[in-house]
Each structure stands twice: as C-alpha cells, then as structure tokens.
Specification:
The protein is α/β, with parallel strands linked by helices and about 425 residues long. The chain has twelve helices and 20 strands. A hairpin with a 2-residue loop joins strand 17 and strand 18. The protein is globular, with a radius of gyration of 23 Å.
Amino acid sequence: MSTAAVAVAIARLHLGRAARTRVRVDNFTPARGRSGVQRLQRARTRSPESPLHRVDSAAIWRATEHSTQTVCSHLGFVICWCKTTVDHCSSGVLFFARTVGVVTTAVHQADLVCEGGGVKGIGLVGAVHALAEAGYSFPRVAGSSAGAVVAALVAALQQAKEPVTRLPEIAQRVDYRKLTDPSLLGRVPLIGGVLSLLTSNGLYQGAYLEDLLTDTLAEFGVHTFGDLRTGEEPLSYAYSLVVTASDLSRKRLVRIPWDLPLYDIDPDTFPVAKAVRASAAIPFLFRPVQVSGATWVDGGLLSDFPVGLFDRTDTVEPRWPTFGVRLTARPGTPPATHHVRGPLALGIAAIDTLFTNQDAAYVDSPCTVRRTVFVPTESISAVDFDITDAQRLTLYNSGVRAAQQFLSTWDFADYLTACRTLPV
C-alpha cells in the first residue's frame, strides 16, 4: 500500500468560519527531507487561471501511512488528516495537492470596501477580479460613489451564485458618456448648464446610472436590499451590501441600508439602484436624491473610503479580514501634477481634492495601509466621461497588478499581530 496520497496540513486558523472545499489528493507525491518528513515550506498555490499567491501563514506538510479520514480541529489550529479528500476545512488554509497536474486552492473570505473615484472605478473592477481569481469571496461588500457601483454588482453576482470573475463583463456595459444626461433645460444652448444648476442643483440627471443598475441587478434577482439579506443578526451582518451617501439636510453620513430606519424606511423595501445613485451623485454635477424630505449626495463628500465600516468594536477576533481598494498610489508616492485651467476645471479639481483627502488621516495609518490595495490612477480624472478604450484598459490592468502585488505579501496573522490593539 502506497504511503503517498496522504498529507498533513497544520496552519494557523485565521478565518473562524469554515468554508466548504474539496481537494483531491489521489496523486499526491510528498517531497521528503532527510528525516522522511517533508520540509517546512511556505505554501504557495494558484487556481488554474491565476498567478501565484502566498497563503496566509506557513503550512507544514508530512507524509504518513496511518491517516484514512478527515479530522478538523478548531482549537487555535486547523489539523486536517486525509487520504483521498480534504473537506470542510477552514477558508484560511490552502491545500497544495497534485491532482493530475492541477494545483487547487480553497476559498478565502474577506469583507470588501471600495473607494469612490468616478470613472477611475474601472481600476476597482480589475482589483476585485484579481482577488476573486485568487479564490476570495466577499461575505459583505461596501463602497462609496463608484465603489458603491462595483460593490452592488459584486453583491448581486454572489447572491445569484455567479462567479465574481464575471464582474469585468458586467462593468463593460457602462457607457460613461451617457452619464452626462442633461435635463430638458440643460439642453438649452449656452445657458442650459446654468439653468440645470439653478432648477435641479445639478448639471446632469443621473437617471442613466439608476436605470442601468436597475436592469442589470434585476438579471441576478436583486431589486431591493431585502434581496441581499444574509440571514444573520445584528443589522451590521444582516445585509451583504452597504453603500454610503451624504445627507446634506442632517449633515451626516448615511449607511444604506443600516440607517434607513432613521428615515422611517423599511430597509428591505429600498431599491439598491436608488441607493447607489445617491452614493454617486457628485455635488453640482448630478442631481441630489430626495429621500423622506432629506437631500442625499455622493458619499465621498463625507467619507470616500469607509474601510472601517465592518470593523469590530469589541474584543472578539474577526472571522476574516476586511480588504480595502483605493484608487490612488501608496502613501509616500509623489502625486501627479495636473494643470487647472478655467473655472470649470477649477470647480472639478476642487471637488476631486475634497473627495480624495476626506479620509486622509485615517486611511494613511499603517494598519489601514496593510489591508489596502492601492491602484495608481493619478493620470486620469474622476470625471473624464470621455475616457478612451485604451484608458479603460490601463485602469483595469492597473487594478489587476495592484491586487496581485497586495496578495503576494498579505498575511492575516501578521496583520492581527501588528494591529491587535486597534479595531480590526
């Protein structure tokens, strides 16, 4: 009887909730050291279509003749003994097995928060796609402005049991030029823009985005937040999607759907597309959204990168990490210089500067930087609605590379050790 086909994986249990995965090890051939025990190695893995990524913590592999069953222990470590399959093992563990030449990865979990950034949100699509290809799923997603658009699409895909890797295909449907949908008054030559601002508080209606999202989300069975219930409690765990908007009437950040009861609205009945439209309503460019007598605009006005949204406030260790995706270079990178010419460019630059620096003190902290994917996008304006196909591809590829670089060094155990004194 062969001693191959058996492996022992011992890894630090970082992600407290188990995720189902099945890895065949029928053809596993151990690499032995002098003592007959496999050498301690940094377990690395990849799915058939994705680049190499490093596992959260070191894994020890041994060959043994005696194990014929799967045993998983959750006493600080996960220990899985297996002969033919590994099943019901923690999402924090990757199993490195040769199965007819294929290397297989377990599913990881991480909450996801996406920064706003107008058309630069294409970079978010690239980053999320790379994370999904690496085996990550996202129990809860959140975002502001463009980040809300991406978050809503991710939540809908997962709700419909569709692969998140379909995100680029879905995101391609957005025609950014149609975002500039003027009202009837806005079409008046020369003074249309001024009339729109005076009568509607925005140059453009914003209806195109809401209509597109309504139709797209409906394809995946998502209409209201009630369609995105997780079945968990309390409220902060009850929905798989949270988007943010700024309430100008009450001067506060609105976390949709969490804060909807404050407006006497049942969260289960509120349309997801309307929430995203409000989150992306850049002041003066798009009409604000009126909700129960309140005026909602772009969430980035108060918090463009709400990466702490899902952080625990108690002393309980998190079940999995929260990843953030920002549309800017890493802190310390010299920013690009953009020339500002004319009153319109000045107004756009002022809004862009306000949004970009709103969370600067918090998001540049070392522990936030550790869990954030930084997508360089400085060469493109957030409101360049005439963006070319070449620029779209540049943004997308920038996101893919940024996420791959992030995963090559990410270690949840190291993060918890370094940031344990802070909410995580």
